[in-house]
Amino acid sequence: MDAFYASVELLRYPELRGLPVVIGGHRHAPQEIVDPTTGMVTRKFARLGDYVGRGVATTATYEARRLGLHSAQGLMKGAALAPDATLLPVDFDRYRHYSRLFKRAVREIAPRIEDHGIDEIFLDLSDVRLSGADDGGAPRDLADAPDAAARNLAAVESEVDAWWRARDVAKALKAAVRDATGLSCSIAVAPNKLLAKIASELDKPDGLTMLKAADVPTRIWPLPPRRINGIGPKASAKLDALGITSIGALAHADLTWLMDRFGRNYGAWLHRVAHGEDDREVVTDSEPVSISRETTFERDLSAQRDRAELGAIFTELCESLARDLARKGYAGRTVGVKLRFDNFATVTRDHTLAVPIQGAQAIRHAAGLCLKRAPLTRRIRLLGVRISSLTPLAGDRDGLARVATEHE
DNA sequence: TCTGGGGTCCTAGGACCC
DNA sequence: TCTGGGGTCCTAGGACCC
Q1: Torsional sign, CA A198, A199, A202, A208
Q2: Does position A243 have pLDDT exceeding 80, yes or no?
């Protein structure tokens, strides 16, 4: 989905279209002002320049991106860059709603969907046929061809057919998503998930990109390695320092040289992905591995001096986690805490129980044991509680069905 | 004016078992 | 009279993703 959170917000605040808007933080909802005589409603939006706090931008409209604003950027930093941009608070419930809408619309056309976050999916289009479309009838039986050359030709023709069919399917998907949500998305059709993901960003927003394996040298190799899903800031910086600034350069790097510098597994993986190779399946059903809640405080808290406040937040986190767990229909055996200190260093502590738990009190008790083992000398900026080693709760078919549609 | 919140996967060491 | 070779589970940290 294109600039998903921001685009959802523009649906309800159309007067912001065309303006730089940033989504982030949580305490600055627009004020509605009703004119007592006319009854006309005008909204007063928060100005990014007035923001004070520790929030980051989750999404920026394309107009805001032109001013240098982008996701994961601190809002205070963004405020210095573009003080007159509009700031809207995040509304996850609303985004989840639109997420379900677009996924449902897609599922009607292409049922083999892999969830990849709230605003992304992978689709297996192998067996998708548009109903009512003239797709040349039944697939040709290659065995009917009289000789090898004819079989080859028939195979090529059938591949070409599939290619144009996939393009029509992608067009139909975009139309269905727009009908269901009023939102635009960008789609790429490619031989695998790796290439589809990269290609889907080549023509954003509202893109439709068709990419064949043979296109990799011309269209993928010029891109920086960072565009590959799995090459983040660290690996990218290291590649840069080694003089590798494009995916093509990575493809031409020696395999053993890469493995020596990045480890056997990661080095071999870098080599494969640079050549566009990826054999991962589209996974249509998956269970969550962990569920967590965390919060960053408005000011750093001391374990001694702010004990009461920390305790209240800790309990609240355990209660929200227990609610999430119940809503999704799971119990878990491993409870963990996460602490981030004033110097941004992060520690975690885990505790595994003999039997799965799900209640807030049991979670709070186990998390308390973890907390006792954590260093508590520095001031704390973030506290989190997590539960893993999950087992679905028997008898909660409703819950499981909800998980199947909500799991993002 | 430092850097959210929700996740997944990988690595590495140690305990423990056969 | 030095300490094999598997395997699993648990813990902690870190890179990465949306």
Answers
A1: negative
A2: yes
Phi and psi at residue A200, to the nearest 5°: -65, -20
Q: Is the CB of A18 under 7 A from strand C?
A: no
Nearest residue, CA→C1' of B1: A76
A290 touches strand C (CB under 7 A): no
- CA distances in angstroms from A136 to A5, A139, A158, listed in the order given: 40, 8, 10
Res. A408: pLDDT tops 70: no
> Helix axis angle, A360-372 relative to A307-328, nearest 10°?
130
User: What is the average per-residue pLDDT within A315-332?
Assistant: 98
Q: What is the DSSP string of A332-344?
A: EEEEEEEEEETT-
Helix (H, G, I), strand (E, B) or coil at A24: strand
Which residues are CB-contacts of A210 (< 8 A; sequence separation ≥ 6)? A163, A166, A167, A170, A188, A189, A190
How far is Cα A271 from Cα A251, in angstroms, rounded to an integer? Answer: 6
C1’ C17 / CA A267, Å: 20
In the structure, how far is the CA atom of residue A269 from the C1' atom of nucleotide B10, in angstroms? 13
Looking at the annotation, which residues of A are catalytic?
120
- The secondary structure of A304-319, three-state, reads CCCHHHHHHHHHHHHH
- Under 8 Å between Cβ of A294 and A316: no
Which pTM does this prediction carry?
A: 0.91
What's the CA–C1' distance between A263 and C1, in Å? 39
**Which are the contacts of A18, defined by CB distance < 8 A and separation ≥ 6?**
A63
For residue range A35-62, list pLDDT tens digits in order.
999 999 899 999 999 999 999 999 999 9
Query: How many residues are recorded in chain A?
Result: 408
Nearest protein residue to nucleotide B5, judged by CA and C1' positions: A294
Portion of chain A with pLDDT greater than 90, in percent: 86
Contact A229, A197 (CB under 8 A): yes
Alpha-carbon gap, residue A259 to A297, rounded angstroms: 41
pLDDT of residue A27: 82
Q: Kindly tell me if the per-residue pLDDT of A405 is higher than 50.
A: no
Residue A250 sits at the vertex; the CA angle it makes with A244 and A256, to the nearest 5 degrees, is 105
